[in-house]
Amino acid sequence: MSILVGKKAPDFTTAAVKGDGSIVDNFSLSDTIKGKYAVVFFYPLDFTFVCPSEIIAMDHRVEKLKELNTEVIGVSIDSHFTHNAWRNTPVNEGGIGQLQYTLAADMDHAICRAYGIESEGGESYYPAGVAMRATFVIDQNGVVRHQVVNDEPLGRNMDEVVRIVEALQFFEENGQVCPAGWNKGDSGMVNTPEGVAKYLSEEADKL
C-alpha cells in the first residue's frame, strides 16, 4: 500500500455514471475537481454488504460537501454498467438508489493500483484484486491531504470525511493546526511552543 499524503493525487480518465444518471466514457478526475476539493473513496464491489451503507451515507453528506466546494467520486473495479444497475435498484431491495455523485469504473484496476490500494488478499479479509475500503481527501491544488484505509468488514464514518475537509479548510484559512477531535467552531492551535502551551492550558481537560 502506498502513502500518498503530500503527493499529487493520481489522475485518471475512465467510464463512469455521473450524479445525474448519465453514463460517460471519459470521466476525468482532474477536469472535474479543478479548483475544488475532492473526496475520492474506493470500495470493494457493487451489490455487496458494507459497501452500500457507506455509499448511501456519503450521499447523505453530499450537499454539505458541495457547500465546502468538494466533489465526491466513488470508485470500484465494477463496470459503469454494473454501477448503473445498482443505482437503479431500490434501496429496500439492496440497491443504492439515485446517488448525487459519480461512480467511476476501474475495470482494469489501474486506478486502485495507482492509489496503492488494490488488495493482495493474504491476511486481509479482502479477496485479492478488489479495491480496498480507502478514502482520499484532495486539496484545491490536487494534493492528497488525508488518506485512510479500513479492512473489509469495517465501514467508514462519513461524518469524519466532512470533518477532515472542514479541518483542512480551517487550517488553510487561519494558519492554525487542528488538535485531536477538532470540530468546526472549535479553537485551533498556533503551532509554536507558546501556542501549544496556551491551547493545552485551556483545552486539555476536554480532550
UniProtKB/TrEMBL annotation:
<dbReference type="GO" id="GO:0045454">
    <property type="term" value="P:cell redox homeostasis"/>
</dbReference>
<dbReference type="InterPro" id="IPR000866">
    <property type="entry name" value="AhpC/TSA"/>
</dbReference>
<dbReference type="GO" id="GO:0042744">
    <property type="term" value="P:hydrogen peroxide catabolic process"/>
</dbReference>
<dbReference type="Pfam" id="PF00578">
    <property type="entry name" value="AhpC-TSA"/>
</dbReference>
<keyword id="KW-0963">Cytoplasm</keyword>
<protein>
    <recommendedName>
        <fullName>Thioredoxin peroxidase</fullName>
    </recommendedName>
</protein>
<keyword id="KW-0575">Peroxidase</keyword>
<dbReference type="InterPro" id="IPR024706">
    <property type="entry name" value="Peroxiredoxin_AhpC-typ"/>
</dbReference>
<keyword id="KW-0560">Oxidoreductase</keyword>
<dbReference type="GO" id="GO:0005829">
    <property type="term" value="C:cytosol"/>
</dbReference>
<dbReference type="InterPro" id="IPR019479">
    <property type="entry name" value="Peroxiredoxin_C"/>
</dbReference>
<feature type="domain" description="Thioredoxin">
    <location>
        <begin position="3"/>
        <end position="170"/>
    </location>
</feature>
<keyword id="KW-0676">Redox-active center</keyword>
<dbReference type="InterPro" id="IPR036249">
    <property type="entry name" value="Thioredoxin-like_sf"/>
</dbReference>
<feature type="active site" description="Cysteine sulfenic acid (-SOH) intermediate; for peroxidase activity">
    <location>
        <position position="51"/>
    </location>
</feature>
<dbReference type="GO" id="GO:0008379">
    <property type="term" value="F:thioredoxin peroxidase activity"/>
</dbReference>
<dbReference type="GO" id="GO:0033554">
    <property type="term" value="P:cellular response to stress"/>
</dbReference>
<dbReference type="InterPro" id="IPR050217">
    <property type="entry name" value="Peroxiredoxin"/>
</dbReference>
<keyword id="KW-1015">Disulfide bond</keyword>
<dbReference type="InterPro" id="IPR013766">
    <property type="entry name" value="Thioredoxin_domain"/>
</dbReference>
<comment type="similarity">
    <text>Belongs to the peroxiredoxin family. AhpC/Prx1 subfamily.</text>
</comment>
<dbReference type="GO" id="GO:0006979">
    <property type="term" value="P:response to oxidative stress"/>
</dbReference>
<comment type="function">
    <text>Thiol-specific peroxidase that catalyzes the reduction of hydrogen peroxide and organic hydroperoxides to water and alcohols, respectively. Plays a role in cell protection against oxidative stress by detoxifying peroxides.</text>
</comment>
<dbReference type="Pfam" id="PF10417">
    <property type="entry name" value="1-cysPrx_C"/>
</dbReference>
